[in-house]
Amino acid sequence: MYYLRATLRAIAIGALFLGSLATLLILIWKVPELLTGSRLSRLSDVEQLKALNDARVPIVAAIAGIGAGVGAIFAARTYSLNKVSAHADRYAKAVEQLASEKLEVRVGGVYALESVAKVLRGDISPVAEVLAAFVRAGSIRDSGDSASDIHAAVNVLTRGLLARIPADMTGVRFAKIQLRGNSFAKASIREGDFSMADLTRVSFQSANLQLVDFTGAKLNRVSFAGADLSGADFRGAVIEKCSFKKANTQGCRGLPVSQY
């Protein structure tokens, strides 16, 4: 609908431009007569023609300048519409790639969406939502293979511009996956599975981690600051130099008392 409205607006602008130009061209023949006034009648035919042409020169020059300016604006608008349309096509193609049966095609779709997000910059929430849904569905299928398309999607979601949007990863399964240095800040990962995962230097700051399984995970310099960890399971996890500042640890299992 947006693209239809934009196209109709461009057509309306073009029609207005052509109508205005036609009106100005008609005025070229009348305005000089008004400017020269009654003195035309006192001139010979040759002198009349010269007087009218002399009056038309600045008018034609002004119209040409206006026409060039409006034309440039219209051309810029057309270029902008074409650019938006191209981004929409890239987005649609990338989403289609995520449904491919081939792993390499799905990985390409993930990074294509990241490229679209970098170009759009403003409203990138649709890209984040699509990738989050892909992670939720795919993590259940693949159980977080570190070489998979799911791992690629997690990397894209947790870095750069997309990391600023809280992702909904409820119920994801990242057992035995390596996610070093990723950021899940403010994400909702309720009832997720990070058992036996390597989460070195991962940030879960202010994330929803209710009932998350961290059993046997490697937690080195992980930030849980401000996170909701109620009911999370840390039994068997290796916890080194982690931050639990202002985190809700109510009902946690396996978390050393020194970490509270």
Task: Explain the overall architecture.
It is elongated and about 110 Å long. It has a domain of 87 residues. It contains five helices and two strands, in the order αααααββ. The mean pLDDT is 77. It has a two-stranded parallel ribbon with strand order 1-2. α3 runs parallel beside α5 and α4 runs antiparallel to α5. 52% of the residues lie in helices and 2% in strands. By secondary structure, it is an all-alpha fold.
Outline of this structure?
This protein has 260 residues and is mainly alpha-helical.
What labels describe this entry?
2 strands; 52% helix; 260 residues; mainly alpha
What is the strand tally?
A: 2
How many helices does DSSP assign? 5
User: What is the succession of H and E elements?
Assistant: HHHHHEE
Which of globular, elongated, flat, extended, rod-shaped describes the shape? elongated
Radius of gyration: 32 Å
Low-confidence stretches: none
Q: Which percent bin holds the helix content? A: 40-55%
Strand percentage: under 5%
> Structural class of the secondary structure composition?
mainly alpha
Mean pLDDT over all positions:
77
What gap, in angstroms, lies between the N and C termini?
A: 53 Å
The major sheet is characterized as: 2 strands, parallel
Largest sheet, order of strands side by side?
Answer: 1-2
Topology:
Layout: H1 2-36, H2 45-98, H3 103-120, H4 125-142, H5 149-157, E1 218-220, E2 238-240
Helix pairs in contact: 1-2, 2-3, 3-5, 4-5
